[in-house]
Design brief:
With 189 residues, this protein is of the alpha/beta class. The protein has helices at 2-30, 78-94, 111-121, 132-137, 166-178, 184-188; strands at residues 49-51, 57-59, 67-73, 99-105, 126-129, 146-150, 156-161. The strands form two sheets. The chain has a five-stranded mixed beta sheet with strand order 5-4-3-6-7.
Length: 189
């Protein structure tokens, strides 16, 4: 009888523990918002504010009216090192048409290694210091690199996980530039 009572008490304690722990995880998972479902195509990209390498705060929604190539990457990511020069060249090529490249560095070691890496690679587009909350908003960003192409209205038109060819990146840029208002900058004049 005493053993049955002890087992019952242990089972109740475990159930209570699961309830408390599960509630904590549920709160943690929704703290930054519900996050994207699936690939997020057609959804407005979750807004965030992150710091640049020089400490300036950048809000994603500040780029409305521009097509955005939003790339989650890290200094230790080999495929990311392949893409970065392509992103710089493509921003120069398509920037006059309204393209902006924004890199979100997902390194755990802080700003110093990202700054050193950005200088070594001569990255000339906006680099932001990412965090898990922003990654969660974008569906968890399970692997790096992960790139989202946003149209001028901030809608996600394409998501790509992993390294793809230069021409596939260019196709994503063209898709983002071609979505939304035909010439948003002309409408602002």
């Amino acid at each position: 009888m005493k053993r049955n009572n002890l087992v019952l008490i242990v089972v109740i304690a475990v159930v209570i523990g699961f309830i408390i722990f599960g509630g904590h995880l549920r709160k943690k998972g929704t703290a930054a918002g519900p996050g994207l479902k699936g690939d997020g195509i057609g959804a407005i990209a979750p807004d965030f504010t992150l710091a640049t390498l020089d400490g300036k705060k950048v809000k994603l929604s500040d780029y409305r009216g521009k097509a955005v190539l939003l790339n989650f990457w890290a200094t230790w990511c080999g495929p990311c090192k392949v893409e970065i020069p392509w992103f710089m060249d493509l921003e120069k090529q398509y920037g006059p048409q309204g393209l902006v490249v924004v890199g979100v560095a997902m390194d755990d070691d802080g700003k110093a290694p990202v700054t050193k890496f950005a200088q070594e690679m001569k990255i000339d587009y906006t680099v932001l210091l990412g965090n898990d909350d922003v990654a969660d908003q974008y569906g968890g960003v399970e692997g790096l690199p992960t790139t989202f192409y946003l149209d001028r209205n901030g809608k996600i038109v394409k998501k790509v996980a992993g390294l793809v060819s230069h021409s596939e990146i260019e196709d994503g840029i063209k898709e983002a530039l071609g979505s939304g208002p035909a010439n948003a900058s002309a409408a602002l004049r």
